[in-house]
Each structure stands twice: as C-alpha cells, then as structure tokens.
Specification:
Distance between the termini: 90 Å
Strand order of the largest sheet: 1-2
Radius of gyration: 23 Å
Number of domains: 2
CATH class of the largest domain: Mainly Alpha
Length: 124
C-alpha cells in the first residue's frame, strides 16, 4: 500500500514537472509583446518583425515598418502602400480607414502608433 502511494505521488510530481517545463518555454499572456515574440520564435514559429517603438509615419514607412504595427501583416501593409501610391500622401491618420481591411477597431489600436507628417516645402 505504501509503495503504491509513493509511486502515485512520484507520477503526479513528474507530470506537473513536465507541464511546468513546457509552460516555461512559452511566455505568459501578461508578458510583454517582445517576450511573447521571443517565446514564439523559440518554439519554432516564424518571427514577426519587432513591434514598433517609435511612431510609424504612414507617408514614408516601408512595408517592413508597417508590418511592425499590431494587426498589420504583409497583405495589409501592401494595401496601405498601394493606397498611398494611388491616392498620394495621407493627409490625416484617419485616412488609414480608407484602406480595405482597416476598420475602426483596428484604427483605434493603431492610432497611438502612427503619424502623418505634412509635405515639406509648403512654406506656411
């Protein structure tokens, strides 16, 4: 009886130990985005560009820079560049909602991370 109890306890401890080690390789939900990205990269997932630390200028950003914004992948970045090429410079950040795939919810997430600078040489 005592031996069976010891074996059962050893199995439970081993199971919890294995689960704990698996969780240590993945960043918790409350971890910073960079910690989550690092955990994902360590788990063999493709690495997304580092999150934007400075505001991204919609009028000068490259596709790679746009992809650092949350919720903006290669397809959305391409549509932003296409919109800019077709319609000219963004006059205000709200113009971003004219891009297919950028709704109000996405825009509100991006708003503190984006800027639009006026054209140089206007002489105002």
């Amino acid at each position: 009886m005592r031996t069976t109890l010891v074996i059962a306890i050893a199995l439970v401890v081993t199971a919890f130990s294995s689960a704990s080690q698996a969780q240590q390789s993945a960043a918790p939900a409350w971890a910073s985005p960079s910690a989550q990205a690092n955990a994902g990269a360590q788990a063999g997932k493709p690495e997304k560009p580092a999150p934007a630390t400075a505001a991204v200028n919609l009028n000068t950003a490259t596709a790679k820079q746009l992809e650092t914004l949350p919720g903006v992948g290669p397809a959305t970045a391409a549509r932003i560049l296409e919109y800019r090429e077709k319609n000219g410079r963004f006059k205000k950040i709200e113009d971003l909602m004219n891009v297919r795939g950028i709704g109000e919810k996405t825009f509100l997430t991006l708003k503190p991370l984006i800027v639009v600078t006026p054209e140089k040489g206007l002489g105002w």
